[in-house]
Amino acid sequence: MRPSAASAADAVCLAASPGGHMAELYSVRAAFDGRPRIWVTGASRQADALREAGEDVRELPPWGRDPPGLRGLAPNLRAARRVLRSAPAAAVVTTGAGTVVPYALMARAAGSELFFMETMARVTGASLTGRIVAPFARAVLVQWPEMRAVYRRATVCRPALLESGDHAATPGAQGTFVSVGTRPEPFDRLLATVDRAVAAGTLPGPVVAQSGTSTYRPVSYSASAWMAPEEVERAMTQARYVVCHGGAAMVSGAVAAGHRPLVLARRRAAGEHRTEHQQQLVERLARERAVVAVEGDIDARDVRIADAREQSTARRSELPSAEAALRDQLARVLG
């Protein structure tokens, strides 16, 4: 459902940086049906798709730990001010990260109510966005019960990105899809792990692989550095197995396509990520039977578990969905 045509001052602004943060916010968009809404994000295919769907999208330039770094802060602040002036909002709902944090804080200072949903990727510790934004938020949502100890007044809900994981795998699917995601760090370890499994006959071909900035050159299959979102979705649907990094959006995409993906977490110590939160997420999702956590080589047992695609225990939880929790919080504050 598209947003209603009510006054912009009554609008709800949905603010998230491109990638997994935007995927999580988009997954709960039905919570805002019937309310005028504005999306604030960075330039991306996700932003383009929202515009094509008739949504009101405002873009902010990146800044922070990824290029252009702190040099991007001044342009980001100027763009945030323009958005605040041209599209005032009664409330801002954000999942982070850095690109939209200044905007969210400026909107709160200007009188907007602020709601923060911590990313599914955070299982035991707060994100930097959470540490900055949560103290100013009217309500905080977390997606794992363990996070109640981190955000004392938070509402605990089911993981938003796992809600759509009830589709059956495509009949006749063949081969293996491999993705390292879109992070700037290389992930040679994943590509090499798959190479050994394909060579040993543990994983079947044909193999469709996305390698990002990795320098490893597989012997048993070929890889493309980047793939468009629609190409990734198609490859997931057509593959029998998915092997990927532990990014929340990539994992949830595989689950939504009917897979129990084989997931290798990026590690900070190996220079594959800035934090260890992928390891925490993968371990937690493995406990919920949503993924197969890969620690060393992929063996026949891992593949058998990946073939057993029963519903994740996280989706059978009695906790409220993130969509329902957000709708309830907005109704309490905005009516």
Provide structural commentary.
The protein is α/β, with parallel strands linked by helices. It folds into 2 domains: 8-158 and 317-334, Rossmann fold (3-Layer(aba) Sandwich), CATH 3.40.50; 176-314, 3-Layer(aba) Sandwich (Rossmann fold). It is built from 11 helices and 12 strands. Helix 9 links the parallel strand 11 (262-264) and strand 12 (292-293). The two termini are 19 Å apart. Residues 1-7 have low confidence and may be disordered.
Low-confidence stretches: 1-7
Strand order of the largest sheet: 3-2-1-4-5-6-7
Number of separate strands: 12
Could you say which structural class the secondary elements and strand pairing correspond to?
A: alpha/beta
Give the biggest sheet. 7 strands, parallel
What is the class of the largest domain in the CATH system? Answer: Alpha Beta
Q: In percent, how helical is the residue content?
A: 25-40%
Report the sheet-strand fraction. Answer: 5-15%
Number of structural domains: 2
Q: Please report the number of helical segments.
A: 11
Question: What do we call the CATH topology of the largest domain?
Answer: Rossmann fold
pLDDT averaged residue by residue: 91
CATH architecture name of the largest domain: 3-Layer(aba) Sandwich
Cα distance, first to last residue? Answer: 19 Å
What is the chain-wise order of helices and strands?
EHEHEHEHEHEEEHEHEHEHEHH
